[in-house]
Amino acid sequence: MTSSPSAKKANQLADLIADIGLSGDTLKTVVDAMPDPGSAEYYNLMANGYATVPDQVARQKWMKELVAMHKDWIGVGSSQTNKNFKVLDYACGTGFLSQALAPYVTEILGVDSAETMTTVYNETAKKTKEANPECTMHAVWGDLIKIREPSAGMNPNILTELKGEFDDLDMVAMSLAIDFFSSATYELHHLKHALHTLTTRLKEGGTLLILDIERDYANDEKSETDPYLGRLRNARKRTGFGSKDVFTVLEELGLQGIEVLGDQTFRADMEFFRQILVREEVYFLLKATKGVAPVCGSKEQIRDTAKES
Q1: Can you list the positions of beta strands (E) in the chain?
Q2: Dist CA 56 CA 97 (whole Å)
Q3: What is the rounded CA–CA span in Å between residue 195 and residue 252?
Q4: How far apart are CA 193 and CA 249, in angstroms?
Q5: CB under 8 Å to 299, separation ≥6 — which residues?
Q6: 59 Rama class: left (phi>0) / alpha (psi -120 to 50) / beta
Q7: Distances (CA, A) of 293 to 172, 188, 254
Q8: What is the sign, positive or negative, of the torsion defined by CA atoms of 237, 238, 243, 247?
Q9: Is the CB of residue 279 less than 8 Å from the CB of residue 268?
Q10: Contacts of 189 (CB under 8 A, 6+ apart)
Q11: Model confidence pLDDT, tens digit, residues 47-85
Q12: Of the candidates 83, 117, 87, which has an alpha carbon nearest to the alpha carbon of residue 100?
């Protein structure tokens, strides 16, 4: 009999940390009671402590340093070009990428499907405003792509009520977001639908910026479909979308100037139950420019394609 994903997840975690004395049964009970990782409910649960977990604190610092190092490549290095520079941070979480971009732009609008994440984002934005008075940051709870059913209470009319807020953007940015554009089967047409939806909101000459963990293409194992069960191999994703997938889709959508900075390594050493654990992840940073309007079929065709799986 095949175990359920939640049972497999709990058993794997129990095996992983049995050496430090936690009961496998206790751990399984706790993990099975939690929402599925990656769901809006999961991130609602994690939001309040998300930015204080040691590896997340290290990741936030690393993102700021990465953006600062490559700000000219990203296109935000010149203060003259960044007056009235508007950014959409999609799947913004508590705002790690927004905070990294804040010193270089004037307005950041965050969107996330987890309500509590946006609450924490807006609380943090007040402190970010003190350090970067020329930048305004604000997040709303919603989803611009609508691949999944909306969470209970989510405003389905966010685009109507905030008309114009999500249009004529200088940049659409996202970090650790692309795998949420599809189910565990990671269909490219879902990725294409999502990126088309977001890039149509860019002004001509606007930039798409993606920061995400690279996929381990060198050891691809397509039979592995659970991204949360031993999801990293060689510090890269076993499954999910990587830079090659994104590059292919953006070419099909007609984006221009697609460039990738690969092998951006994040490393954090953490103490966990008196043992040092090392987290290492290899990221890619990708940018692309919107030129003429992408040609990829009508909106109705794209919407129908996204519903197929």
Answers
A1: 86-90, 107-112, 136-141, 169-175, 202-213, 232-233, 236-237, 256-272, 275-289
A2: 12
A3: 11
A4: 9
A5: none
A6: alpha
A7: 16, 20, 8
A8: negative
A9: yes
A10: 305, 306, 308, 309
A11: 555 666 677 888 899 999 999 999 999 999 876 555 789
A12: 87
Strand 202-213 and strand 169-175: the pairing is: parallel
Q: Beta strand pairing status for 275-289 and 202-213? A: antiparallel
Query: Residue 197 and residue 251: Cα distance in Å, rounded?
Result: 15
Q: Which two tokens stand for residue 10?
A: 């709990």
> Counting beta carbons within 10 angstroms of the beta carbon of residue 214, is it exposed (0 to 12), middle (13 to 18) or buried (19 or more)?
buried
The pLDDT tens digits for 145-171 are: 865 555 555 566 666 666 678 889 999
Per-residue tokens: 205: 């000459």
Answering whether pTM is above 0.90, one says: no
Place of tokens 């940015």: 173
Two tokens at 48?
């309040």
Q: What span, in angstroms and rounded, lies between the C-alpha atoms of 13 and 27?
A: 8
Neighbouring-strand partners of residue 232: 237
Tokens found for residue 274: 């008196």
**CA dihedral for 24, 25, 29, 32, sign (positive or negative):** positive
